[in-house]
Design goal:
This protein is α+β, with helices and mostly antiparallel strands. It has 15 helices and ten strands. It is globular.
C-alpha cells in the first residue's frame, strides 16, 4: 500500500484531492485543520481517519477479519452528545456517523479505546489504561448480551444527564458563537434549502445563512447555518455536506455511497427527529443541548469509568443494528480473552503517534 511507512504530506494531499471530488472543500478551513494536526496527537488522530483506515488491516490483521457490522468507523470519546426526541426527552449517544461503513465490529472498539489512551496521554482522562479498557469492554459485552437499550436521560441515568448539562454548555455562550459566524456567501442546492425550510418549526422567511467552522475530521466541509428568531429566541438548523466514508478511499472501492442515514435508522436508538438527509447533505437542529460533548469540557468531578462503560454500551447499541451479523459477532466476542483489546489499541496508538511525529516534522519544514 502506498505510503504506509510514513504519514507524509502527500498522503493527506491525495486524500483531500479525492474528498474534493465529492465536496466543495473550504481551503482556509483545511489549512486550519493542518495547523491543528501539527499541534497535538489527539487532534491529528481525529483529523486523519483516512490514515487510520489504511493502517488497520496491516496492524490488526486478525481483528480486521472479525464479523462485519454497519459500524461508526470514526468512533472516539468526543463523538458522543445529546439531542431531544419527539417527546422532548434528552437522549445521549453517538453523535456523528459520517464514516459509517460495513467493517469488522472490532474497528469501533479499538478506535474508541485508542482515543481514550490519547486522552490519558494529554491529561483529559485521569484513569489508567487498564481501567479504561475494562470499563469500555465490559459495557460493550453487557449491552451485546442484553440486546442493548438507548440512553434516555429522564427517569434513568440522572448522573449522565447532570454531566451532559454541565455549566460549560451555557446557552448564552453557545448562541454568542452562532451569532459570531460569518455570512454565508454561496448558494445551497434547492433540495437542501427546501429541507432546511421544512425542518423549521414555522414558515421562516427572513432567516440568515451563516458559515460555520467545526469538527476536525470534517473540517473543511461546507457547513451552513440557517438562523432565525422565533418568539424572541433563536432557532438554528445546520446543513453539512458529506463525503463518502474514508473506507472507500483506503480500500479503492468504486462507489460514492453514504450510509449515515442507514445506520441511524437501524441502530438501537431513539432518533433525533430533526436529522434529515438530501443527497450528500445532512440537515440537523443545533442547540446548547443538541450537540456533541467534548471530554475536555466536562466537569473535573466525574465518574470516568462509568462514562466509558456507557460508551461501550452505546457502541454495542450501534452494532446491534446489524442483526444478521449478531450471532457471528457474539461467537467471535466470546472467544476473545485477556487483553486483546488493549493490545490492539496500543498497537494502533503506536502507529498514530509515529505518523503524527512525521507529519509535524514535515509540516513545519514545509511551512
Amino acid at each position: 500500500m502506498t505510503g504506509v511507512q510514513t504519514c507524509a504530506l502527500p498522503i493527506s494531499a491525495e486524500f483531500e484531492k479525492w474528498a474534493a471530488r465529492h465536496v466543495n472543500l473550504i481551503r482556509s478551513d483545511v489549512q486550519r485543520k493542518h495547523d491543528n494536526m501539527a499541534k497535538a496527537a489527539f487532534a491529528f488522530f481525529r483529523a486523519t481517519f483516512y490514515r487510520w483506515a489504511q493502517w488497520w488491516p496491516i496492524v490488526c490483521p486478525d481483528l480486521s477479519r472479525a464479523p462485519q457490522v454497519l459500524a461508526v468507523g470514526d468512533l472516539h470519546i468526543d463523538n458522543f452528545g445529546t439531542w431531544r426526541d419527539l417527546e422532548g426527552r434528552l437522549i445521549w449517544g453517538v453523535n456523528d456517523f459520517d464514516e459509517a461503513w460495513p467493517v469488522a465490529y472490532t474497528v469501533d472498539l479499538v478506535r474508541l479505546l485508542e482515543s481514550c489512551y490519547l486522552a490519558i496521554e494529554e491529561d483529559h482522562l485521569a484513569l489508567t489504561r487498564k481501567e479504561a479498557n475494562e470499563a469500555l469492554e465490559q459495557g460493550y459485552r453487557d449491552s451485546i448480551a442484553r440486546g442493548g437499550t438507548p440512553f434516555v436521560l429522564a427517569e434513568h441515568h440522572r448522573w449522565l444527564r447532570l454531566l451532559a448539562l454541565n455549566e460549560l454548555r451555557d446557552p448564552v455562550l453557545f448562541w454568542e458563537k452562532i451569532q459570531a459566524c460569518p455570512k454565508y456567501k454561496g448558494k445551497l442546492p434547492l433540495d437542501v434549502l427546501k429541507l432546511v425550510r421544512d425542518s423549521m418549526p414555522f414558515r421562516a422567511k427572513d432567516y440568515a445563512l451563516k458559515s460555520r467552522t467545526a469538527g476536525l475530521g470534517s473540517l473543511g466541509h461546507p457547513r451552513v447555518l440557517a438562523v432565525v428568531t422565533w418568539h424572541d429566541a433563536h432557532v438554528v438548523r445546520e446543513a453539512k455536506q458529506l463525503t463518502p466514508s474514508a473506507w472507500i478511499w483506503s480500500q479503492h472501492l468504486k462507489t460514492d455511497q453514504i450510509l449515515s442515514h442507514t445506520l441511524i435508522d437501524t441502530a438501537v436508538r431513539i432518533r433525533d427527529p430533526h436529522v434529515h438527509f438530501a443527497e450528500h447533505w445532512m440537515v440537523r437542529r443545533l442547540a446548547p443541548d443538541c450537540s456533541h460533548i467534548e471530554i475536555s469540557t466536562l466537569p473535573e468531578e466525574r465518574d470516568e469509568e462509568r462514562l466509558l462503560y456507557y460508551m461501550g454500551w452505546e457502541t454495542a447499541n450501534i452494532h446491534l443494528g446489524s442483526p444478521k451479523a449478531n450471532p457471528a459477532l457474539k461467537r467471535d466476542l466470546a472467544r476473545r480473552k485477556g487483553r486483546w483489546l488493549h493490545k490492539a489499541a496500543k498497537a494502533m496508538l503506536k502507529v498514530t503517534l509515529s505518523d503524527w511525529k512525521f507529519w509535524r516534522r514535515e509540516y513545519r519544514t514545509a511551512k
